[in-house]
Design a protein that fits this description.
two-stranded antiparallel sheet; 4 helices; globular; transferase; metal-binding; EC 2.1.1.354; Annexin V, domain 1; binds zinc ion; [histone H3]-lysine(4) N-trimethyltransferase; 9% strand; single chain; zinc-finger
């Protein structure tokens, strides 16, 4: 593997960043990484494939939760390792559907609990993200607290106790990092 062309650094005033460690040519690819986690939004749900996000008229539905939809058997199979645990949660909270940020954080948690860290975590991890909790207004904090409660209800099929979460993971902070505030 080629040596990395960028490194992580942090500055007290501006937070974390990446900087070049080798001479660069214009247009040169510095870094490519799959996201740690992603999910279709409520708006696109049912209209695009849960894995490749391709829009298609006829999508295949997960026979377990009947929520996740795929463009074909190949995507469904590839999506299963990431969907397996959320599938039970989605099924258990039916007929309700979780807020997008709750489903997304569920996927983040599952990823962080994997034994082999995701490729995207090597350079810049979820724990490096700033939560900006101190900058939130009381209203937004209250919103996050409610999301945290919704999250615990959503995930309880898989995680009943905070001790089962990844080490040093905090649900409230997780939402602040996700940056989705309603
Ligand atoms: Zn697909
Ligand atoms: Zn499913």
């Amino acid at each position: 593997m080629e040596p990395p062309k960028v490194e992580k650094f942090s500055s007290a005033a501006r937070g974390n960043g990446l900087r070049a460690v080798a001479p660069l040519r214009p247009g040169e690819l510095l870094l490519r990484s799959d996201p740690l986690a992603y999910t279709v939004s409520k708006r696109s749900r049912g209209a695009v494939c849960d894995r490749c996000l391709l829009g298609k008229e006829k999508l295949m539905r997960c026979s377990q939760c009947r929520v996740a939809k795929y463009c074909g058997a190949k995507c469904q199979k590839k999506a299963w390792p990431d969907h397996k645990r959320e599938c039970k949660c989605l099924k258990s909270c039916k007929p309700r559907y979780p807020p997008d940020s709750v489903r997304l954080l569920g996927r983040v948690v599952v990823k962080l609990m994997e034994e082999t860290p995701s490729e995207s975590e090597k350079l810049y991890s979820f724990y490096d993200l700033e939560s900006n909790i101190n900058k939130l207004t009381e209203d937004k904090k209250e919103g996050l607290r409610q999301l945290a409660v919704t999250f615990q209800l959503y995930i309880r099929e898989e995680i009943q106790d905070p001790s089962q979460l990844p080490p040093s993971f905090d649900i409230f902070e997780g939402f602040a990092k996700n940056g989705i505030l309603h």
